[in-house]
Amino acid sequence: MRPVLRTARSLRRAASAAIASLLAVVAVGCAPQPEDDASGSASSSASGASCAKGDLSTKTSGKLTVATDEPAYEPWFKDDDPTNGEGFESAVAYAVAKQLGYDEADVVWQSVPFNKAFAPGAKTFDFDVNQVSISDERKKAVDFSSGYYDVRQAVVALKGSAAAKATSIADLRKLHLGAQVGTTSLNYIQDVVKPTRQAAAYAKNDQAKSALKNGQIDAIVVDLPTAFYITSAEVTDARIVGQFENRGGTPEQFGLVLDKGSALTSCVTTAVDALREDGTLAKIEQEWLSDAVDAPVLK
Amino acid sequence: MTFVKQESGPEGADDHGDPPGADDGYVPSRRRLDRERYKRDRARRATAVAALSTLVSAVVLYLVVVNAPGWPRTKETFFSAEYAREALPRVLEGLWLNVRLLLVCGVAVLVLGMLIAVARTLRGPVFFPLRALAAAYTDFFRGLPLIINLMIVVLGVPALRLQGVTVDPVLLGGTALTLTYSAYVAEVFRAGIESVHPSQRAAARSLGLTNRQALRHVVLPQAVRRQVPPLLNDLVSLQKDTGLVSIGGAIDAVRAADIIVGRSLNYTPYIVAGLVFVALTIPMTRFTDWVTARMDRQRAQGGTT
């Protein structure tokens, strides 16, 4: 049976050629990029690790790369420019940088969309500051510093509308509410208010604002400082109806976002803690968010 | 057995003979049997090589992916069974919106597109303004990015505060989709109409049909058959773009996934939503393939080739 033999031989030849070429491709093209920390077990809390400027393994040596979304909204940033140190989060970022030993000139800002900051894979920034609330579920995907701001969620509605007269969560139930997708504001609507009509979810707060103005929804839920800014500057015929109580008694906090298992997490957390203890955070909050003091609590 | 190089009979005559063993006393020659066996061997061998190389490629790809340093995290982030289970019901709920929009907008797009295409192909100087208007419409709405069209319609129209005009983002979004897609589809229809040979129209007119009758009974039936594949392309594309009405806050399949992703930072819901869309598209494609094949068969029976 020579043809069979020949068949087998050429099969082998073909197969070995295929395997060889594929392996070559693999070896050349897909050489795995070594990661600092493939296992995901962070060496972040190495108690002996020094947080001195020279010892921090930042993306660019000697510089601190900080990310936020574009546009950067008031009152967190001023004039859509994070580099001016004005606005609450810009000021916090520079304070943290200073605490870590970086001058203002050593802070490099980067524009990273809200959702992109959590995507898996190598991060392009040292930390991201973008009103991201800390949660255990999110901690599976990224590292957080300790919280730098205790945030509360508030309801905004047009003056004179039925929604503006709401005094309790039950009053909100029958309304058509909206919030930005991916925010804890939307979670509050879905988990706390549980409205009878499905909440509207917007890609950006801007769209939620215009929907409110156009009467497409009755009220929007945003964090309290944003609510104050919206009602004072952007949608002046709207008012803050009230704020929600914290769920489960623990305050919701914004944290700085770092790559999962980042070597900087412990140092950044230490810096934020120090700023809270010496009153710097309170001072910055007083300066930029002082009007966001209070609103009636909806129960 | 050995293959001796011999003069063989004319190639291609093999397949037309009756099968061996038929009751006509035909006994296939030795040479023919050899030739058939040889062909079978070659075919088998080709299949084996293809199967093996596919297997090897699959194994290598699998190993590359699974041994990538980031695989454990990627797996957890994109292929988490727990989040898939949580996402599926909500994604399907959102998909219902996509499907409803597809059905309503699909019909509207076909009707409007056909009207515009016919308007563009009208003859006679009196119809010039209609032709110009239809051309301007297709030029504008094919060129305008869909997302901007949606923004203007969904967020801009309500700002006008017109009495009696809806502010429902789904209705407005559907309108915007219909505007853009009817421009695409009008061009598909027009190309189909113009691809019918002029002699067909001339023949119809010479039989005494009016222009309208010629269009309806002779030109359009031939045109529509040719348009099915590109029309299906636009329909599938429309199906995916229905999700863009979420600009107005409506929750479709992708936005439903978005909500879970935003809360958990786990990307599995996106994968679920993607697969659900693909699963919706495949039966649709198979169905139209079947319709097209059936139409072709019917046409072939007419004996026109």
Automatic annotation (TrEMBL), chain A:
Alphabetical keyword list: Signal
InterPro entries named among the record's database cross-references: Iontro_rcpt_C (IPR001320), Solute-binding_3/MltF_N (IPR001638)
Domain of life: Bacteria
Matches recorded under PROSITE patterns: PROKAR_LIPOPROTEIN (PS51257)
Keyword Signal listed: yes
Compositional bias segments (type: Low complexity): 39-50
Segment forming the signal sequence: 1-30
Disordered: region residues: 34-57
SMART domains reported in the protein's UniProt record: PBPb (SM00062), PBPe (SM00079)
Domain Ionotropic glutamate receptor C-terminal: 63-291
Residues of the Solute-binding protein family 3/N-terminal domain: 63-292
PANTHER family: AMINO-ACID-BINDING PROTEIN YXEM-RELATED, MEMBRANE-BOUND LYTIC MUREIN TRANSGLYCOSYLASE F
Name recorded for this polypeptide: ABC transporter substrate-binding protein
Automatic annotation (TrEMBL), chain B:
Region (Disordered): 1-29
SUPFAM superfamilies: MetI-like
Protein location: Cell membrane
Domain ABC transmembrane type-1: 95-288
Keywords, sorted A to Z: Amino-acid transport, Cell membrane, Membrane, Transmembrane, Transmembrane helix, Transport
Transmembrane segments: 46-65, 99-119, 140-160, 267-287
Statement: the UniProt record of this protein carries the keyword Iron-sulfur: no
Keyword rRNA processing: no
Entry membrane topology: Multi-pass membrane protein
Pfam families per UniProt: BPD_transp_1
InterPro entries, A to Z: AA_ABC_transptr_permease_3TM, ArtM/GltK/GlnP/TcyL/YhdX-like, MetI-like, MetI-like_sf
Similarity comment: Belongs to the binding-protein-dependent transport system permease family. HisMQ subfamily.
PANTHER family for this protein: GLUTAMINE TRANSPORT SYSTEM PERMEASE PROTEIN GLNP, MEMBRANE COMPONENT OF AMINO ACID ABC TRANSPORTER
Protein name from the UniProt record: Amino acid ABC transporter permease
Organism: Streptomyces akebiae
